[in-house]
Amino acid sequence: MTTITASDSWFKRTTRSIHIPPVFIFLVVTFLVSGLLDQFYSDGQIFSNPAIMMNIIVRSVALGIVAVGQTLVILGASIDLSVAFTISITAVMSSYIMKGETANVPVALLAVFAIGAIIGLTNGLVITKLKVSPFIATLGVSLIVKGIINATFSNYTGSVPKSFEYFGYGTIGSIPVSIIIMLLVFLAGWFLLARTKFGAHLYGVGGNSEVARLSGVRTDRVLIGAHIICSMTAVLAGIFLVSQMRSGAPWVGPNGLYDLNSIATVVIGGTALSGGKGGVWGTLAGVLIFGILDTTFNQLGVNPYLKMVLRGAIIVLAVASYTIRSKKEAA
Amino acid sequence: MATTTYTPPGGVSNTLHNAWVGIKKIPPVFPVFFLIFIVLGFLNPVKYQSMNGIMTFLRTAAPLAVLAVGQMFVLASGGFDLTVGAIVTFVVLVSSKLLANDPANAFPAIMMMLGAGVLIGLVNGLVVSYLKVPSFITTLGMMLLVRGAALYYVGGAPQGYLTDNWRAFGRNYFENVPVFERVPYALLVMIGVAILSYILFNRTNYGKQILAIGDNVRASQLSGVRVRLVRVLTFIFCALMAIIGGIMIGGYGGVNVTIGEGLEMQSIAACVVGGVLLGGGKGSVPNVIFGAFTLQAIVNLLNMLGLPKPYTDVVQGLIIIGAVAYVGLSSQKKR
């Protein structure tokens, strides 16, 4: 893709040869600017306190886990708007089934992963077999799941046992378990995309579905698989959230805007919405950018509504930094 | 139609066949809507078989129809507009402060809102056209920005109430109208919007160019369509419709911080039920208006059947999937 010519500057040659996606530069800039602002206008914790760095990452765990799944479906030129309510149903169902008893944990986990698999399978089947555009298919499924939870639960339901809070609060050495799990999910996503046949096929389907089909890829199966994995990551994120909150409530997913935020982080991470281009590491950077911004806004005591405005502007500008050089018209 | 059709002599079967061909051309949204409305009429004759009841229904359904028409322009050009719901919230919240409880401020407030609509649409359009950010992301960011700005301006809670003359567009009726008994302002606004957008979409170059862009950007560019200009105009049109819809919704529902939530998806759903394809290249003003009516009729039907509100979501989800699946599968058969 990118050719390296002698006339380019040393910096350009080096960065191109090691393929740093622009989002990592954006990440470093965000970190430095945030740290400096914090230094001047607040107590300078971002640069001096390692605990706050850890906190930034812990805040990003739920979003990070879903974003891996979202990366997969977007790479396949699909999209998943149902992750927010999948998170909600997971949080509510798991704490409802656990009822604070450690003995109920395996059943609860089995149940929520089964629910996740069904949601993902439905998404995939509706998209591939009924030929419904992914946006509408997953929006529809999301409405259905939303209706089902809101009809059944209206507030905090059940609770998780003390032992289960290990996922949300436990540490191994000085590193929180949640961070390790998130990194494992990213590694798994990377492995799936870069080292397996499924990953190669997924890139093919996202790049040009017809070409992939004609070269013998079972495009429908690949897309259904990606959707099932995506729903599974949403379930995992839901489990993490409920272990932190100790009890599940139906508004966990939509209040965190996990559907739109995960899509935004994936696109900021350099994965094309049209599919076939990108990967999970960019998404990780995107998620961390969101985490740093959140923490900085809190440090500086930015008004919560102004925070929303800034977030919106930053999403657009971050994506614009890639797309502005594109020669194709956007739609 | 100028086309001459060959009609073989006589034969009942032929007439029937021709009638069938004609019937098949009717978009499914019309029979579906009338079917639901007839069911409503059977279940509650007092409410849905009287002119008064029909007018009340149209008053409730009109705002979504206006939002959906705006959304359709953007969808037909191949984009998305997720700012619609945030704009409705913006209109209601910011107006509640601008009005300062004084009816004399209604006109300037509405003008300022329309100005804000042009500005929001302009930003959406420019970012998509010149920064080449996909409209999904652009309008997602703008959704946060617009909602955040509105909440910031009013400090997180509504300031004052909406004056009665501001609310008239969504709430009031012309009384004692012959035949129709009473006509809601909202219906007249919607009819105005419908006629204007029908002309824009079907009778002007601009409308044809929207469809051309939605169908194939490159081809339309090469044939001289000013893609960027058309896109910017389309986003401005959609934002203006969202402002008008917002004034009607605020009039009907009053001040509420969450008033616009989810309307972007509902307007897209109304378009989809009206046969619009995501990805562009297809659209029709009357079908989309009836798509919005159908969604509203379904909500009313479920309410009447006594189903709790959450089930409305389930049924709406099934309906929009069904609508798209129907279009997708029937167009596949033809190929």
Question: What are the defining features of this structure?
Answer:
heterodimer, A: 331 residues, mainly alpha, ABC transporter involved in vitamin B12 uptake, BtuC, 72% helix, B: 335 residues, two-stranded antiparallel ribbon, 15 helices, globular
Structure description:
The complex is a heterodimer of chains A (331) and B (335). In chain A, helix 6 runs antiparallel to helix 7 (105-128). Chain A contains 17 helices and two strands. Chain A has one domain (49-319): ABC transporter involved in vitamin B12 uptake, BtuC (Orthogonal Bundle). Chain A is globular, with a radius of gyration of 20 Å. Chain A has helices at residues 10-17, 22-41, 45-48, 50-59, 61-75, 83-98, 105-128, 134-152, 166-169, 177-195, 197-207, 209-214, 219-245, 252-255, 258-268, 280-300, 304-323; strands spanning 171-172, 175-176. In chain A, strand 1 and strand 2 form a beta hairpin. Chain B is mainly α. Chain B has a single domain (28-326), classed as ABC transporter involved in vitamin B12 uptake, BtuC. Chain B has 15 helices and two strands. In chain B, strands 1-2 form a two-stranded antiparallel sheet. Classes of the chains: A mainly alpha (331), B mainly alpha (335). At the A-B interface, helix 8, helix 15 and helix 17 of A face helix 6, helix 7, helix 11, helix 13 and helix 15 of B.
Quick structural overview:
Chain A is mainly alpha-helical. In chain A, 72% of the residues lie in helices and 1% in strands. A two-stranded antiparallel ribbon of chain A has the order 1-2.
